[in-house]
Specification:
Layout lengths: L15 H13 L5 H8 L3 H11 L2 E4 L2 E4 L4 H21 L1 H4 L18 H4 L2
Antiparallel strand pairs: 1-2
């Protein structure tokens, strides 16, 4: 989905120079917050967030900025697992489905943070 062209001043904060600045800042420490990056490179927090999410395709996970897209190896692995599951389903039918356990890669700990700063860690 993309915005339609509209009149007015074009967005310059997300230009190549600023994207490079954010990338360099992030390469030094992937755990930096938008606030820390914007202070370091003199950009607004909103512009830094827009560069990270829209231009560099990063997401904040577990207090780190990580690529949002899968690598080719991860994609191939998922296709391989899916094909294997389909083959097994074709031969074993519902018996196979009853043995599948699903989950995600999230680890949940029982910890009640005292401050916002602690909850980001």
């Amino acid at each position: 989905m993309e915005d339609e062209p509209r009149p007015g001043r074009p967005v310059t904060a997300c230009g190549d120079v600023n994207i490079f600045k954010v990338l360099v800042s992030l390469s030094n420490d992937r755990r930096k917050t938008c606030e820390e990056i914007c202070t370091e490179i003199s950009m607004s927090r909103t512009s830094v967030f827009r560069v990270l999410t829209n231009k560099l395709n990063k997401k904040k996970k577990f207090s780190k900025w990580v690529p949002h897209l899968l690598t080719d190896e991860q994609k191939e692995s998922r296709v391989s697992f899916s094909r294997n599951f389909l083959r097994r389903f074709q031969t074993e039918q519902n018996d196979f489905l009853g043995r599948i356990i699903i989950g995600d890669e999230t680890w949940v700990y029982s910890w009640d943070p005292e401050t916002k700063r602690q909850s980001a860690k």
